[in-house]
Amino acid sequence: MKAFTAETGKCGDCASGCAPKRLTKLGARVRKFDAVAALAGNPNTGKSTIFNALTGLRQHVGNWAGKTVARAEGAFETGGKKFKLIDLPGTYSLLSTSPDEEIARDFLLFGKPDVTVVVGDAMRLERSLHLVLQILEITTRVVFALNLMDEARRARIRIDARQLARDLNVPVVAMAARRGEGVSELLEAVSETARRDFSASARRISYADKELENAVETLAANLRANFGELPNARWIALRLLEGDENIIRAVRANSLGAEKSGSHLTQLALAEAR
Amino acid sequence: MTNENILEQAAALRGALKPNLHDELTAAVYARASDIAARAVHRPEGESEPESGFDQRLDRVLTSRVWGFPLMVLLLTAVLWLTIAGANVPSALLADFLQGTVYNALHGAAQAAGAPRWLEGFLIDGVYLATAWVVSVMLPPMAIFFPLFTLLEDFGYLPRVAFNLDRLFKKFGAHGKQSLTMMMGYGCNAAGVVSTRIIDSPRERLIAIITNNFSVCNGRFPTLILVGTIFIAAAAPPFLAGFIAALSVVAITILGVFFTLLVSAGLSRTVLKGEASNFSLELPPYRPPQIWQTLYRSVIERTLVVLRRAVLMAAPAGAVIWLVSNVYVGGESAAAQIIAFLNPFGVLIGLNGVILLAYLVAIPANEIVVPTILMLTLNLLAPGAAQNGVMIELEDAKIQELLTGVGGWTLLTGVNLMLFSLLHNPCSTTVLTIWQETRSLKWTAVAALLPVALGVAVCLLTATAARLAGWI
Amino acid sequence: MKRKAGREAFFYRKASAPLLTGDTGKKKTMTLDKLERGRSATIVQIFSENAERRRLFDLGILPGTRIESVMASPLGDPVAYRVRNSVVALRREQANLIEVEEERHEGFYR
Question: Whole-prediction pTM value?
Answer without folding.
Answer: 0.79
